[in-house]
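Annex B, item 7. Sequence and structure tokens for protein A, then protein B.
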Amino acid sequence: MPAVPIEAFEHYQRREGGSGAWTWEHQALTRARFIAGDAAIGERFERLRNEVLSMPRDADLLAEDVLEMRRRMLEGHPNRSGLLDLKHDRGGMVDVEFIVQFLVLAHAQTQPRLLGNLGNIALLRIAGELGLIDARLAGEAADAYRRFRKLQHELRLNNAPYARVPADTVAGEVATVKELWRAVFATEAP
């Protein structure tokens, strides 16, 4: 049984009645998928997900919302360690994830290839193929994300409390992600 009736979830996600899901909730929806339970509800969820992700959006307002959420996340994960936090620091994994989420929400209406829950690396490649971002930069950012994930997994396997490394070990990758951020949002990371 869903936590809320599917009808209520649909109304909320569609923002029917002038209120409902916030941009950050639609960002999360880019990564959501049905995995178990009633197949009919799963199909209905997937249709709704595609519908919501394909809604027309004002790209400038969307960018403002995404940037504001990124600022909040940075404030919520301060790093005073002297090391680079692979996930939360500027130029890290969250920046890649927010770029991908923005691209999906901004362009899925006209680019349905972005609707698949394929992961950040594949969606970066698709965005590059579609010309939404520079294909070379998309590939380099995907490689950076892949390296961040590998390092994060290694640290977790060794019981590290945080996924932090000396900044110089990933300086090129961080620079690439920051370059893509500037290309997508026309501003420095918050």
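Protein B:
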Amino acid sequence: MANLPHVIDVTAETFETEVLQKSLQTPVLVDFWATWCGPCKSLTPVLEKLAGEYGGAFVLAKVDVDQQQQIAAAFQIRSVPTVFLLVGGQPVDAFQGAQPEGQLREFLQRHGIEPLAAVEEAQDVDAPLDPQAEVARLREAVQAEPDKEELKLDLALALLRTGAAEEAGQLLDALPANLATDDRAVRARARLGFSALLKDAPAPAVLEQALAANADDHRARHLLAVHHLVGGDAGTGLEHLLELLRRDRNYEDGLARKALIDAFRVVEDEDLVGQYRRRMASLLF
């Protein structure tokens, strides 16, 4: 195999170190493949491309099932290609068969795995600025170049930071397909979804009282978590969502798991997200 960044070949001797231990710090995709497998020949190059593009946001570990039968047996591999995602030393999801690049990106996004460039972009977006002044500047830019759709995405993000969720949502809805799936747009939609939940929600103090009276008031716990996430207290928000998952993982068709994954998209503290990803995985698996 060519020396590709963030791509490794794994053996039974290296699996503990290169996969299980590494997944405690960084998500690891384990690609079970074979030399005779046609679909593997189309899937593996795409996975390798994404591993390089994501810049270390995940590691691709390749396992030749014919050469590494012990690992394949441990994962009960029945067909190839089969790909497992390991986080925190545990498998959290998997898929079989060749997948198009768009679906692979969606798979990664569902687990809060974003290109590291997107993290840097988000840091640039959140640089100290007067939010209202930034909105005014971007409105002028959009008027000057109405066909430049990227400016409309920038304006939507700026509006979200001022609380103008309705106008931001309208701009996001009008984005062309290539920008609607942009990492920043996906993050913005997650933020927008959280903000919408609070439109008619009780105040945090009321929700705290409800939880004090009944620790199994799942609706109150969920809304209180959202209040904290929108208000910038990511740790408390994630803790409430994790507790909701612990108490009832099936509440509202898996609401806690879905909310945690959305929260991973909007929380920009990578260490905090990694910690809660691992704790979520330990509850689910």
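Comment on protein B: The mean pLDDT is 86.
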